[in-house]
Specification:
mainly alpha; Four Helix Bundle (Hemerythrin (Met), subunit A); 124 residues; HPT_dom_sf
Length: 124
């Protein structure tokens, strides 16, 4: 989200709605992106730990938290996977190993692109 950088440079997120919601303030979007970068990896790690332990309540809690954060950046595929994970956990089900692989494969590029958002504006 550098000045003049087209928002189409992103493939896993779409920060345009967030940018509109904050009145076009790219600095605010960058600040929210930095918050995501600080908060999301530990949440994702706790989600993986809960899944490996079969703790449905923790899976539900962590997937719900991360779902909201990813939805803010319009990370549609990741948000949908987290929604499915949360719904399954509400029924006492843990993600299968291949589901965890798919979550990781969706999370990594989202994290990378949100990192670009975070670096697009200097910190205040």
């Amino acid at each position: 989200m550098q000045p003049g950088q087209p928002l189409t440079d992103y493939h896993h997120i779409d920060p345009s709605q967030l940018l509109d919601a904050v009145g076009g303030d790219a600095g605010t979007v960058a600040s929210l992106a930095r918050t995501f970068l600080e908060s999301a990896p530990p949440i994702f790690a706790r989600l993986q730990e809960a899944a490996l332990a079969g703790n449905a309540e923790r899976i539900r809690h962590e997937s719900h938290a991360l779902k909201g954060m990813s939805a803010m950046f319009q990370a549609q595929p990741l948000t949908a996977l987290l929604q499915q994970t949360e719904q399954a956990a509400r029924q006492g089900q843990s993600p299968r190993p291949e589901d965890l692989v798919q979550l990781q494969a969706s999370f990594a590029p989202v994290l990378d692109e949100i990192g670009r958002c975070a670096r697009s504006q200097p910190q205040s």
